[in-house]
Amino acid sequence: MERLQPGDALLIADIQNDFLPGGALGVEGGDEIVPIVERYLALFERQGLPTFLTRDWHPPDHCSFRDRGGPWPVHCVAGTAGALPPAPFRTPPAAVLIYKAIDRSSEAYSAFQDTPLHRHLQALGIRRVFVGGLATDYCVLNSVKDARALGYDVFLLTDAIRAVNVRPGDGPQAEAEMVRLGAMPMCLEDLAA
Ligand code: VGL
Ligand code: ZN
Q1: Active-site residue list
Q2: pTM
Q3: Which of 15, 19, 112, 142 to mutate to test the pocket of ligand 1 (most atoms within 8 A of CB)?
Q4: Among 59, 79, 143, 157, which residue has the least CB neighbours within 10 Å?
Q5: Virtual CA dihedral for 32, 35, 38, 44, nearest 10 degrees?
Q6: For 128-179, what is each residue's pLDDT tens digit?
Q7: Domain segments of the chain as ranges
Q8: Ligand 1 pocket by Cβ (under 6 Å)
Q9: d(C-alpha 100, C-alpha 174), whole Å
């Protein structure tokens, strides 16, 4: 059992239409985690703990797009419907939005890369970060790596992540890598009410 305490924060990656089934870069099962993510958000919100939501937020000519020589179809173009959360998704009023990979010429999978996230967490005295969202093998993996390198304790919300799996096995491999780096796997049932 894990009990939430002051110094805890929730970090949810890229709950955006383009990463959900039917989206430009749809992640299989991505829709299944949405209600679980909402429950984590509600738990943190109820205890007055900070929540952070990342948004992949690319210019239309971003270097990660295939027509620019990158690996991905056009996705999450800033301000488009594909870059928004699904319509019924409830974002806590106090949630902080972290926009990433906004620069045309650089890819950024981590929520910490070229964002104010670390400064926000420091200002709030955060020591433990609970991480979920999309995608396990990109944003979640790279955010967890950076969080560990920055000295945060990390909990990996295994019921609230899904992988792109460009190569079969990428998801489980990413999870193993995060655990190797010290991330502690847990799920909703492990959180004491
Ligand atoms: C991501 C693929 C393309 C991610 C971003 O943040 O997980 N994955 N762009
Ligand atoms: Zn992207």
Answers
A1: 14, 100, 139
A2: 0.98
A3: 19
A4: 79
A5: -90
A6: 999 999 999 999 999 999 999 999 999 999 999 999 999 999 999 999 999 9
A7: 2-192
A8: 14, 25, 56, 72, 109, 134-135, 138-139
A9: 20
